[in-house]
Amino acid sequence: MPDHVHLLIGQRPDSALSDVVGDVKTGSSKFIKAKRWVAGRFSWQEGFGAFSYSRSQLSAVIRYIENQQKHHTKKSFREEYVDSLEKFGVEYDGRYIFKTGDE
After folding, report:
1. Are 100 and 2 in contact (CB under 8 A)?
2. Residue 101 pLDDT > 60, yes or no?
3. Which of 34, 35, 38, 75 could form a disulfide with 79, with the two C-beta atoms 3.0–4.6 Å apart?
């Protein structure tokens, strides 16, 4: 999608999620810059969101990721993200939720 990315990552329990995301952002930023895929300066948004799933849910998560374009014809990423936070009972402050280019 042009405004967000979903990653399915298997993570060791002794690695910090923020370190993994930082490595992904740093490496992908360098790659995007080297390939000149974006005119001007590329940067990731400051934060990130993460949800954990059990191994038994992997097929459903993969299907969800594969069908992003279809999902977002009905609901924006931000709407879907807030719905997920509420579904999982995650408290949040709306000021810190994913921002679109217009915000």
Report:
1. no
2. no
3. 75
Q: Which tokens belong to 4?
A: 């967000």
Tokens of 103: 């915000």
| Structural element, H or E, at residue 22 | helix 17-35
Contacts of 64 (CB under 8 A, 6+ apart): 6, 71
Q: How far is CA 101 from CA 24, 44, 68, 78, 97, in A?
A: 22, 12, 19, 12, 13
d(CA 9, CA 60): 14
Note whether 38 and 91 are within 8 A (CB): no
pLDDT in tens, 11-38: 888 999 999 999 999 999 999 999 999 8
- Amino acid, single-letter form, for residue 22: G
CA distance 44 to 9: 18
